[in-house]
Specification:
Layout: E1 2-3, E2 8-9, H1 53-76, H2 88-117, H3 125-153, H4 159-195
Helix pairs in contact: 1-2, 1-4, 2-3, 3-4
Length: 196
């Protein structure tokens, strides 16, 4: 600071021409993003700022698990009957599909709970989002295919098998609806990850 004829002079540092967003960038931080899905679930701590979409997806996975198990259980009780007149292949098809969906949703539920509880990562979040999106679409397709094939073949069966098949198809349709919502949310998470 220089004292002169009644005024003070303060030396100024040369200003660099930078954008306002460049002040937030540092080599360690990378590009800032408002997306809540750009950060790992395992690296974030449990707080009120945590997106509730993760808990909602876990609830949907639990519902798919329960409904696919109920669908498989309804058919497992009648699988040993020999008087099914060709209906056996349809019940086996829906039984296999709902069992596969049961194990897939059990894995997704386990992964989601372990990501939240112990902050450990089974596979990377980016790969998990891609896999969840593709496998949710595939699970929905398998459920709608097996339900429609079995629903068309229900009319030619005995009464006990007919009741079990109706319960199985209705549980499978409910599992399909919850899988469809999970697939939409998986697509949302993936699009947020890609866009930001």
């Amino acid at each position: 600071m220089k004292e002169g004829s009644g005024f003070s002079v303060i030396p100024r540092q040369p200003a660099a021409a930078v954008s306002p967003g460049a002040a937030y960038l540092s080599p360690a931080m990378g590009v800032p993003t408002p997306s809540p899905f750009s950060f790992s679930v395992a690296s974030s701590r449990w707080s009120s700022s945590r997106p509730s979409i993760h808990i909602f997806i876990l609830a949907l996975r639990a519902m798919v698990l329960v409904f696919s198990f109920a669908s498989s259980l309804a058919l497992a009780a009648t699988m040993s009957d020999d008087n099914q007149d060709g209906f056996q292949k349809y019940t086996e098809f829906i039984f296999v599909v709902t069992t596969v969906i049961f194990f897939y949703s059990a894995y997704q539920l386990f992964k989601g709970i372990s990501d939240i509880s112990c902050r450990c990562v089974l596979i990377s979040d980016k790969i998990s989002d891609y896999l969840s999106f593709v496998l949710d679409q595939l699970a929905g397709y398998l459920l709608v295919s097996s339900s429609s094939v079995t629903a068309g073949a229900i009319q030619n069966t005995s009464s006990s098998l007919k009741k079990a098949a109706i319960v199985s198809v209705s549980m499978s349709v409910v599992a399909l609806l919850t899988t469809a919502i999970s697939a939409i949310l998986s697509g949302y998470k993936l699009s947020k990850r890609i866009m930001w």
